[in-house]
Amino acid sequence: MYRIGELAKLCEVKTDTLRFYEKHGLLSPLMRTESGYRMYTEEDAERLRFILRAKAVGFTLAEIAELLSIDLDKSNWACADVKGMVDIKLAQVSAKIAELNHFQVSLKRLSDACCGGPESAEHCSILEALESNSAEVKRENHTHQHQNNPNKASCKRKG
Amino acid sequence: MYRIGELAKLCEVKTDTLRFYEKHGLLSPLMRTESGYRMYTEEDAERLRFILRAKAVGFTLAEIAELLSIDLDKSNWACADVKGMVDIKLAQVSAKIAELNHFQVSLKRLSDACCGGPESAEHCSILEALESNSAEVKRENHTHQHQNNPNKASCKRKG
DNA sequence: CTTGACCTTAGATTTAACTCTAAGGTTTAT
DNA sequence: ATAAACCTTAGAGTTAAATCTAAGGTCAAG
């Protein structure tokens, strides 16, 4: 039997989080001491680990609540139901990755076009790309290069 | 000159969004009609497009506000400053992608281990994986296969 | 002159998952 | 017996970016 702080430490979460999970119906200790302290059993700890594992693969708490209720009533559910949830989540995750890949490609293109030097941003390719409609990002061509920093890669490049 | 609804339609955002951007200092039309209607200039429209382009590469509104203020005062900023912001965002995006890739791999593994059929979830590999500590996901081996659905791929696989 | 589409404001609500605060009761170690 | 470390509750705050609501003013057409 664990007190809330003990279970929290054991599973590396905050006590706040355990109370939050209780308030949202994910994990409610069956027992309380006379003075009202929550007492968690090993079974409660297992349930918490289930929650944390499900979180670790990307499920939201609402989805985890559903998974938990299925888990407690397995015989009335089919593999198709469970796999369905996983596959929906997989599709969501893949969609988010696709969006972020888009961001990543665009950001990389912006970053690569900019010299990143001490030159004034007056001709910064990044700002120009954000100002203009074009999908393409133009390389900088600083007409007034700084005399200092001779070791820095020049922003003048062919193209 | 555009009224708020016109600019909103032009740029495919809601009027609420434009008022929200104004409240947060991103886009404030210089003019109002006598009756108080916002009147946006072409310059305002360009500024909105800047905002939308920056959003499209993943910047938050707070970051976009910073980019806009740099853009209005370019000569006092260096390329390094601008590129720095892009590179920080790139790192954040890459980190998020890495996390989601982790989710994706785990979910795929869970999905692949489950037959997804009408079999009872009592021996569902996905639930078992969430219940147990092991990183590995075991394939299902339904001892009581359903007699119907003979066309469905069997959950019995070697391994 | 009235209907409908548009505009104004301030402020509340949404989503997700906590995180924190205040005010107080309990347990344990010294 | 008292201080430290723990626990309780209800409820507010956080983050981001809108989105919605209520109550009302403006404008063009018929």
Automatic annotation (TrEMBL), chains A, B:
Encoding gene, per UniProt annotation: zntR
Q: Which domain of life is it from?
A: Bacteria
Q: Which UniProt keywords apply?
A: DNA-binding
Give the region (Disordered) as residue ranges: 136-159
Q: Respond yes or no to whether keyword Cell inner membrane is given for this record.
A: no
Instruction: Please state every residue range assigned to the domain named HTH merR-type.
Output: 1-70
Q: Does the keyword Transcription apply?
A: no
User: From which source organism is this entry?
Assistant: Shewanella algidipiscicola
Q: Name one Pfam family in it.
A: MerR_1
Q: Which SUPFAM superfamilies match?
A: Putative DNA-binding domain
Supply the name of the protein: Heavy metal-responsive transcriptional regulator
InterPro entries (UniProt xref): DNA-bd_dom_put_sf, MerR-type_HTH_dom, MerR_fam, ZntR
Coiled-coil residue spans: none
